Backbone:
């Protein structure tokens, strides 16, 4: 039997939403008042490469989440680096001028410069680690073909990102 494109499109949407073939059939039969069987869904899925399409969407979703988190991290890092740069510049200016009212001011300026340099180094070190993790992440995505494994990896990565960003 031939079904309208609207039925097939709805079946594809339901498939992408992780519904089983029997569940898809049940929903389609109720919504469109038709009598379809699960083998029809299996046939459409096979012919339309639905499993591969679903895997692509999963990977694209994972990549999109990763990119969004990376953009947020970059924004935060830029703010922090800017703050450390201001602190460093202020400390260096005080040291360069050499006009200290009290001896403690030179000590404070030296401490400010030291804190700024250490902060910048920590941020840069974190960026190196983040780039490393991001590269590993893309290697995993490009080689793992099992959709269930990809979903588990994505969930674990979201958890790790949440832990490190303090979101949870």
Residues:
């Amino acid at each position: 039997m031939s079904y309208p494109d609207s039925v097939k499109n709805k079946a594809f949407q339901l498939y992408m939403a992780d519904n089983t073939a029997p569940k898809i059939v049940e929903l389609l039969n109720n919504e469109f008042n038709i009598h379809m069987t699960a083998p029809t869904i299996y046939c459409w899925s096979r012919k339309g490469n639905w499993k591969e399409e679903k895997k692509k969407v999963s990977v694209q979703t994972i990549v999109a989440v990763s990119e969004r988190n990376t953009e947020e991290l970059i924004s935060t890092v830029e703010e922090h680096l800017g703050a450390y740069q201001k602190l460093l510049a202020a400390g260096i200016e005080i040291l360069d001028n050499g006009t200290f009212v009290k001896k403690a001011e030179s000590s404070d300026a030296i401490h400010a410069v030291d804190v700024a340099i250490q902060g910048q180094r920590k941020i840069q070190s974190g960026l190196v680690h983040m780039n490393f993790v991001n590269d590993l992440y893309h290697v995993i995505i490009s080689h793992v073909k099992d959709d269930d494994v990809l979903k588990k990896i994505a969930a674990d990565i979201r958890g790790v990102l949440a832990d490190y960003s303090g979101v949870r």
Observations:
- The chain has a mean pLDDT of 78.
- Helices lie at 5-16, 21-32, 38-47, 50-97, 103-143, 147-165.
- The chain is about 85% helix and 0% strand.
